[in-house]
Specification:
Helix content: under 10%
Shape: globular
Structural class: mainly beta
Length: 267
């Protein structure tokens, strides 16, 4: 689940969408950019979870998750990042999740609800076959609504309030402008070379994104559209500040029906 919450935001959204605009000052934006976690604006739409009667559900996940919460591997279909999921109930306030793909652990997380039930904290480790080093981090959630009576404390509606201690490999991207094309590479294995004329190019290294297209909106803005198997999954607008030291990125997540924004700083 944390893969879809963060990696689906970070890897599939945050990581993918750090695209500097082609500025008139030739290649002035080439280099490395890093997300400022203090300037994240998370989606307002909550995540809805239910752990009850031995079953774990995430109804707002795409695709939705419905598995046994007995700590054993359960098959999950339709998710590009994992095909097996194990949910273990540690106690009445803590659960552990482990996701696998083709038999390999690709992510794991631990979520603990505070004693008052109003907040929850999670830690995660995420990897795939392209990652030289795993992505690690922590985060917090704020309760929006309670779960049904008798359900585990994790049940209910939650809004992610922030992330912290996220490893640099998840927050940075390197770019190089060559002619009318932009090259992107990441420490987590993602890469692409795309023309900025709206044509589609292959996106490599992210199982959830298969193609990308870029379109200039002006001298300081560009739009990126990401697709999965021909279907648009996100549209992002990046606006570079006049001093060229920061970019504000707004993301329309078509899969989850949410929007978010963040700021990346030039390193």
């Amino acid at each position: 689940m944390k893969k879809s919450l963060f990696a689906g935001l970070l890897t599939g959204l945050l990581g993918v969408c750090l695209i500097p605009t082609l500025a008139m000052a030739q290649s002035a934006f080439d280099g490395t950019w890093k997300i400022d976690l203090n300037k994240l604006k998370m989606p307002d739409k909550p995540t809805v979870l239910l752990l009850h009667n031995g079953m774990f559900q995430c109804t707002t996940c795409v695709p939705a998750i419905n598995v046994k919460a007995d700590g054993t591997d359960q098959p999950v279909s339709g998710n590009p990042y994992f095909d097996m999921m194990a949910v273990k109930v540690v106690n009445d306030h803590t659960i552990q999740e482990t996701e696998k793909k083709a038999g390999k652990v690709v992510s794991d997380s631990t979520t603990t609800v505070a004693d008052d039930g109003k907040t929850a904290a999670f830690e995660f480790t995420d990897s795939n076959t392209n990652n030289p080093e795993p992505v690690t981090g922590k985060g917090t959630m704020t309760r929006v609504a309670k779960g049904p009576a008798g359900s585990h404390a994790i049940s209910g509606s939650w809004r992610t309030s922030g992330y912290g201690n996220v490893s640099d490999n998840a927050l940075t991207r390197t770019y190089k402008v060559e002619g009318d094309s932009l090259n992107m590479s990441a420490l987590t294995g993602e890469s692409f070379t795309a023309r900025m004329d709206g044509s589609e190019s292959v996106y490599s290294g992210d199982p959830g994104t298969t193609s990308v297209s870029l379109k200039k909106l002006g001298t300081h803005a560009i739009q990126e559209t990401d697709k999965r198997d021909g279907k648009v999954i996100s549209v992002a607008k990046m606006t570079v500040a006049p001093d060229g030291q920061s970019m504000t990125i707004t993301i329309d997540d078509k899969l989850h029906g949410t929007t978010m924004s963040f700021v990346a700083m030039k390193q």
